TrEMBL record, chain A:
It comes from Streptomyces tuirus. SUPFAM superfamilies: 2Fe-2S ferredoxin-like, 4Fe-4S ferredoxins, Formate dehydrogenase/DMSO reductase, domains 1-3. Residues 143-162, 188-216 form the 4Fe-4S ferredoxin-type domain. SMART domains: Molybdop_Fe4S4. GO terms for molecular function: 4 iron, 4 sulfur cluster binding; metal ion binding; oxidoreductase activity. Keywords: 4Fe-4S, Iron, Iron-sulfur, Metal-binding, Repeat. Residues 230-286 form the 4Fe-4S Mo/W bis-MGD-type domain. This is Respiratory chain oxidoreductase. CDD domains: fer2 (cd00207). Pfam families: Fer2_4, Fer4_7, Molybdop_Fe4S4. Gene3D superfamilies: 3.10.20.740, 3.30.70.20, ADC-like domains (2.20.25.90). Residues 11-89 form the 2Fe-2S ferredoxin-type domain.
């Protein structure tokens, strides 16, 4: 069991959520309040371990008096605010945003998106067969992980995880701008020539599978990846004394990838290269 | 932070370009040659926080290399990163954000040929084709199609930049193939640009308030400026004290001229009262709205006025440092303002003790590098700080957390220059100009199908027709684009709209940045709309989905219907509307929120595609 430290007690504030009174601790976002009230709002760039960049705009809601819609994931609830989450206006924006995304990138490995596309009746095809797509080839330039930017929604999570929010390696950043913006290392070099230390924390946070373990990438290509057949076991990393938690994903008695529990108060899902990728010796059976 | 640098080395020239800005490296930790390594290097490392605090020199550093070499190589970028302790991946992200930089080799001379609205109407496509035919491969000139260069009154326009020490620039406008090729092949000997006053058809007339010195004073002479009333407003400011200045500005009813129309006095008050220090003043001179050139004309024709106005704004809001963020495409304004600031400093009008009043204030110029989005205030802060020019989400607002996370007041050039008459004539007299809710004089940039394109000053409340009459509107007017690419079109029979914030809002349009671009019936409307869509697609920062992908989908739809009307276009128009609505509602910043306005207005008001 993980222990969640209790912060300083916070004052509660009141506002209206879809016509009902809502009470949340000061500092909560609208999304926190929605989740507490059991409302399901789609999110993509929001993640439990990082400050959201509010770039995807699928979580927009209507706030009384605001000229535009606001991102629920980042806007703090304020006393007296009147928030509506499911208006025609908010639903329209979410639908179009989902269509825009699905028409430009490959969302086939993004959890939950298929359900949202259906729920919002999104039709990504209506932009026609010539709609510009990213059309990126997967970059396989090292043995540990693959960057398949054809699946990238530019959520900035990997940038933040590699940068000042977690790893402090600053190995990746956004390059270019507009539709041509891409995640890249310096000089758009191969990963092996970059400042990457292969901690894999960027893979941990990537919401779309644009970053994935080489093992997963290869198995998907071979058609053998099958999450239904996988078991997950959380254990403690044995390499050093820090004691990070590892979750081993095992399929057919082979470790296929390693993640780390985000609710661990010390590591929040972060690992180093050894914990994340150094599992081959476990299954060296010769 | 444990930075990793590759093995690419700068050339001597690249190193010299960076060192000219930052000084020679003090230790091998920051890039001095290994054999120069001193014993002390083994014990201490300059760098760390001290170097990281200079991150804001990244953009000037990129300019230094790009100016000298013409492009930014891996070795040069890595060296700059070492000097500033900036991760190379981030610096690469910054370098690739701006249109004026290249991270691929290119010829030392770049000729930017404007293909934007006014220039397109004035024959830019033929000009481009002609230039390209003359300057084929191997000419040593890279011809690049450019968004509006802010020279619309002299459309079509071209700007040549030749890298070297020093970098040379030449402007050709109105450009012919010969003149543009000459500017590119010998920028040093290209003919001088005409004086800024030529862009002000009213120059020298009585009754001008903002433009009264343009064409009258010598823009390079501080004495001449003072002889024409310069620095009386600053003296008055010192008499009034900071709170008194803010009161005057508030009472004058002055609102921001950049498009958002926020009351200037309120903004200043909100910044002045922040306990957090230091406070910063930022002058937004990144005028990049297609069709806008008034700030350029003010800066070129009366540069000291801006220096004085910034000093007053800094004094009132408790700032001791002002950043002047200037469009990268304005080389003459840069020269004149650099000169003006140096002169003002030498004469005690900037520096530790302004006018002997014990108030310290100085101005630093920062050059943009070709990104329309950097005119958005928070993107501008990021750009100065050495990050990608991506807008931040608000709240927090700049008055609380702006440049370097500190309380910041940000005003554009025209707004600041208005502060001078507010102080010299007093708030009541100023407020008496214009209408009740839109007070003071207003500048309009008139271009397109008119006899005398240029910057016009009229009191708020003049009608669109009156402004067009001043500029000599031509026969066959079909439409007027009001407010620029982010504004909207009005019909030729709507010229009685009063040019005030309320009046244009009532008429369902906007004043925006003061653009009045006239189009006669020879201009193919669908092409124009396509150009607007292309502009926003190019200038989107790419941060948020509705704008990054929405601008592309809109451009595609407009491409499909460029030759179509009626039922054939209906499906795509419906698509445009749906995407446009989501962009307006869900984009992070004003760019995405307004990118659809002009096209929508052309469909609704002009019946484009009917
Ligand atoms: S693996 Fe770690 S160091 Fe490498 S890019 Fe990802 S987050 Fe950065
Ligand atoms: S690679 Fe993944 S984490 Fe990084 S921006 Fe793209 S989608 Fe987000
Ligand atoms: S609206 Fe466009 S320019 Fe503004 S933040 Fe979003 S992508 Fe960037
Ligand atoms: S989840 Fe809120 S904007 Fe992406
Ligand atoms: S300079 Fe070409 S449109 Fe403005």
């Amino acid at each position: 069991m993980t222990v969640t430290p209790l912060g300083i007690p916070r004052r509660m504030l009141e506002f209206t959520l879809d016509g009902e009174e809502a009470r949340v601790p000061e500092g909560s976002t609208i999304l926190d309040a929605c989740r507490a009230a059991g409302k399901d709002i789609p999110t993509l760039c929001e993640g439990d371990t990082l400050r959201p960049k509010n770039a995807c705009r699928v979580c927009v809601v209507e706030v009384e008096g605001a000229r535009t819609l606001v991102p629920a994931c980042s806007r703090k609830a304020e006393p007296g605010m009147e928030v509506r989450t499911d208006t025609e206006r908010a639903r329209h924006s979410r639908k179009v945003v989902l269509e825009l995304l699905a028409s430009s990138v490959d969302l086939s490995t993004t959890p939950k998106v298929a359900g949202w596309l259906k729920e919002y009746e999104a039709k990504p095809d209506r932009f026609g067969p010539d709609a510009a797509r990213l059309n990126e080839e997967p970059r396989v330039d090292n043995d540990l992980y693959v960057r398949d930017y054809d699946k990238c929604i530019l959520c900035y999570k990997c940038v933040d995880a590699c940068g000042d929010q977690w790893q402090n390696s600053f190995a990746i950043s956004v390059a270019g701008r507009g539709f041509d913006a891409r995640i890249a290392v310096e000089h758009d070099a191969p990963l092996t020539d970059s400042a990457c230390v292969y901690c894999g924390n960027c893979i941990e946070v990537c919401p779309t599978g644009a970053l994935s373990f080489k093992s997963e990438f290869d198995m998907r290509a071979a058609g053998t990846w099958d999450e239904a057949r996988q078991t997950e076991t959380t254990t403690v990393c044995a390499y050093c004394g820090v004691g990070c938690n590892l979750t081993l994903h095992v399929q057919d008695n082979e470790i296929v990838k390693v993640t780390s529990p985000h609710d661990n108060p010390v590591t929040h899902g972060n690992l180093c290269i050894k914990g994340r990728f150094g599992y081959q010796h476990v299954q060296n059976r010769d | 932070m444990d930075l990793h640098f590759g093995d690419s080395k700068p050339t001597d020239e690249e190193r010299a370009a960076v060192d000219a800005l930052l000084g020679p490296p003090e230790s091998s930790w920051e890039g001095a040659a290994r054999d120069e390594m001193r014993a002390a290097d083994l014990r201490w490392a300059r760098g760390g926080r001290e170097a990281r605090d200079r991150r804001d020199l990244l953009l000037p550093g990129l300019h230094a290399v790009n100016d000298r070499i013409g492009w930014i190589s891996e070795g040069a970028l890595d060296y700059l990163c070492r000097r500033l302790t900036v991760p190379p991946a981030e610096a690469y992200g910054v370098a690739t954000f701006y249109a004026m930089f290249s991270v691929k080799p290119r010829p030392a001379t770049v000729l930017h040929v404007c293909t934007d609205l006014a220039c397109a109407a004035a024959g830019a496509p033929q000009l481009c084709a002609g230039i390209e035919a003359r300057l084929g491969p191997g000419s040593g000139v890279s011809v690049e199609r450019s968004p509006c260069l802010g020279l619309c009154e002299r459309a079509p326009a071209a700007l040549a930049v030749r890298a070297g020490d020093p970098v040379r620039t030449a402007v050709s406008a109105p450009a012919t193939v010969e003149a543009a090729v000459l500017a590119a092949s010998s920028p040093g000997s290209a003919p001088e640009e005409p004086p800024a006053a030529l862009a002000v058809p009213q120059a020298g007339q009585d009754g001008l308030t903002l433009l009264h010195r343009v064409g009258v004073v010598d823009p390079s002479s501080l004495d001449d400026y003072r002889a024409h009333g310069g620095y009386t407003a600053l003296r008055r400011a010192f008499e009034l004290g900071p709170a008194g200045v803010i009161r005057e500005v508030t009472d004058s009813g002055l609102v921001g001229r950049g498009g958002a129309a926020f009351p200037t006095g309120r903004k200043w008050q909100a910044t002045a009262s922040q306990p957090d220090r230091p406070h910063y003043l930022v002058c937004n001179a990144d005028e990049s709205e297609p069709g806008t050139f008034k700030d350029r004309v003010l800066m070129e024709g009366d540069p000291y006025a801006l220096v004085e106005a910034m000093t007053i704004a800094g004094y009132a809001t408790g700032a001791h440092k002002g950043y002047l963020y200037l469009r990268g495409e304005y080389p003459r304004a840069l020269r004149l303002l650099e000169h003006a600031i140096t002169q003002a400093r030498a004469r005690g009008l900037l520096g530790d003790d302004v006018l002997g009043q014990g108030y310290a204030f100085d101005i630093e110029i920062r050059r943009g590098a070709g990104a329309y989005i950097c005119g958005e205030e928070t993107a501008l802060f990021n750009s100065i700080e050495g990050y990608r020019g991506e807008p931040r989400s608000k709240p927090p607002f700049p008055v609380e957390k702006g440049l370097f996370g500190k309380p910041t007041v940000e005003n554009n050039v025209e707004t600041l220059v208005n502060v001078l008459p507010v102080l010299t004539m007093g708030a009541p007299a100023y407020a008496a100009i214009g209408t009740g809710r839109s007070t003071g004089p207003k500048l309009f940039c008139v271009s397109g199908s008119v006899e005398r394109p240029g910057v016009y000053e009229v009191p708020f409340g003049a009608t669109l027709g009156e402004v067009l009459t001043l500029a000599g509107v031509r026969e066959g007017l079909r439409a007027v684009l009001l407010g620029g690419a982010a504004g909207g079109f009005v019909r030729a029979d709507e010229l009685d709209v009063p040019l005030t914030f309320e009046g244009t809002r009532e008429a369902g349009t906007t004043l925006g940045s003061g653009v009045v671009m006239a189009f006669d019936d020879s201009v193919p409307l669908p092409r124009l709309l396509l150009r607007i869509a292309e502009f926003f697609r190019d200038e989107s920062c790419g941060q948020c989905v509705p704008c990054r992908v929405g601008t592309v989908r809109q451009e595609e739809a407009l491409h499909r219907i460029v030759e179509r009307t009626g039922a054939d276009a209906a499906g795509d128009i419906a698509l445009l509307r749906e995407v446009g609505r989501a962009m307006r509602d869900a984009s992070i910043c004003g760019l995405g929120q307004t990118a659809w306005n002009a096209v929508e207005s052309a469909i609704d008001r002009l019946g484009a595609y009917e």
